[in-house]
Amino acid sequence: MNNGILKILVTEKEIEEATTRIAAEIDRDYAGNNGRLVLLGILKGSIPFLSELMKKIKSNPEIEVMKVSSYGSGTKTSGSVKIILDWQREHIEECDIIVVEDIIDSGRTLSYLCQYLKQKGAKSVRTCTLLDKPSRREVEFVPDYCGMEVPDEFVVGFGLDYDERYRALPYVGVLKPEVYSN
Ligand code: PRP
What we know:
The longest helix has 18 residues, at 12-29. Strands 4-3-2-5-6-7 form a 6-stranded mixed beta sheet, sandwiched between helices. The protein has a 3-stranded antiparallel beta sheet with strand order 1-9-8. It contains 4 helices and 9 strands, in the order βαβαβββαββββα. The radius of gyration is 16 Å and the shape is globular. It has one domain (13-153): Rossmann fold (3-Layer(aba) Sandwich). The protein has helices spanning 12-29, 47-56, 108-119, 177-181; strands at 5-10, 36-43, 62-70, 81-85, 95-104, 124-132, 145-149, 155-156, 172-175. Helix 1 crosses helix 2. Bound molecules: 1-O-pyrophosphono-5-O-phosphono-alpha-D-ribofuranose. 1-O-pyrophosphono-5-O-phosphono-alpha-D-ribofuranose (PRP) binds next to strand 2, strand 5 and helix 3.
C-alpha cells in the first residue's frame, strides 16, 4: 500500500464489480436506442473509471471529454463552475449523453453540466459516478448510475487526487491526515 494511505476504502475488486454492474445497467437501459450513446468524461478525475467503463459497455459508446473547474474563486462554497475545455462536437441533438465522474461531492459540477448540456440541445443527459458522498451535498442531485456511496473522508486514488498526486493508485484509499495537514 502507498505510504500516504491510511486504509483502503474501495478495493480493486470492488471497483471492478461496480464497473461491471454499471456497464450492464447502461447496456440494459440503452438497448434498442436509436441515438448516439456518448460517454462524456470530466477531466481529470474520471480517466481511470471512464477507461474501465467504456471497455465493459457492449453497445459501442462514443467518447468525449470536458474539463471544468469548480470553485473558481478558490473557496468551496462559491459554487461557481467554469468550463475550461468544452465539448466541440456538432449534432449534439443526436446524442444520448452519460456524463462520467469519479466523485460527486457538493453536486454543483454535475448539476451545472446537466443544465448546460440540455441547453446545448442534447437528446438526453444522464449521469454516472464511481463514488458518491451524499453527506456533502449543497444542491440536490441524484446520479442515474452510481458505484458506491462513501463517507466524508479524504479519499484519493483511481482518479482522485490530493495536490495532483495519488490519481494513479488502482484502489480508493483514505489519505493520512499528516499528508494534508503539513
Ligand atoms: C472533482 C470531481 C468532480 C467534482 C465534484 O473534480 O472529479 O468533477 O470535483 O465536486 P462537486 O460535486 O462538489 O462539484 P476536481 O475539481 O477536483 O478536478 P479533477 O477531476 O481534475 O481532480
